[in-house]
Amino acid sequence: MPEEELHEPPRRKFTVLLVDDHPVLRRGLADLIESETGLEVCGGCSGASEALRLVEALNPDLVIVDLWLKEGTGFDLIEQLAAQGSSPRILVCSVHDELLFAERCLRAGASGYIQKEEATGKLVQAIRQVMEGRVYFSEHVSERIMSQLVNSAAGGGEASISELSNRELQVFELIGHGYGTKDIAGQLHLSRKTVETYREKIKGKLNIASGSQLVQRAVQWVLEENR
């Protein structure tokens, strides 16, 4: 009789939840992920509240999240997930500058950061690295961080956006996108008075004298971010 063949038991697939407010992008990421062995997309949504519900219902191994969502923000979602006892790993996939946002996301509880422009070639590598318990950054971010530290040590120059807190940065970016105080309050679920307080804190940290100068600086920064 032929020897009985020995087979390894099939490995469990890692399940991924996609949180991004662009359905077309979610579909593209899902196709990319599911073309890889051992990875499976278990769901997707566009807002933070729905993401929390799906995490509880589907228990994914990994959540891939954008920083700006249809409802809520990626920062808030990361902090809420990280505060849970048995939370999934979190990988941020965003258009925003990695140098400015990656460290903030890690402090909030994420395990990695990849810019969307690099996702096609690097996303699977980032997923596997994060699922192995390691932190993922792009290859050039460490060099850029060191360069920024050297430039900061040299002194001078304009006050840095990096001095803003996460919430201040969210308000600053929404100002740059043309949102007024009322709209920002609705987007971030804050009172108008709280948003005004954040505006004043931002002006102080960035050495900005007036509201119009704040808008100008914010718009300029948003344009540079999206070049």
Give a written overview of the molecule.
The protein is built from ten helices and five strands. It folds into two domains: 14-141, 3-Layer(aba) Sandwich (Rossmann fold), CATH 3.40.50; 158-225, Arc Repressor Mutant, subunit A (Orthogonal Bundle). Strand 4 (89-94), helix 4 and strand 5 (112-115) form a beta-alpha-beta unit. The protein has 227 residues and is an alpha/beta fold. The protein has a five-stranded parallel β-sheet with strand order 2-1-3-4-5, with helices on both faces. It is globular and about 60 Å long. Helices cover 52% and strands 12% of the residues.
CATH superfamily of the largest domain: Response regulator
Strand content: 5-15%
Domain unit count: 2
What is the CATH fold-level name of the largest domain? Rossmann fold
Oligomer: single chain
Instruction: Give the helix/strand class.
Output: alpha/beta
Query: Architecture of the largest domain, according to CATH?
Result: 3-Layer(aba) Sandwich
Q: Which residues form runs of ≥5 with pLDDT under 50?
A: none
Strand line-up of the largest beta sheet: 2-1-3-4-5
H and E string:
EHEHEHEHEHHHHHH
What's the average pLDDT? 83
Radius of gyration: 20 Å
Number of strands: 5
Note the gap between the termini: 68 Å
What is the CATH class name of the largest domain?
A: Alpha Beta
Main beta sheet, described?
Answer: 5 strands, parallel
Helix residue percentage:
40-55%
Count of DSSP-assigned helices: 10
Cα shape: globular
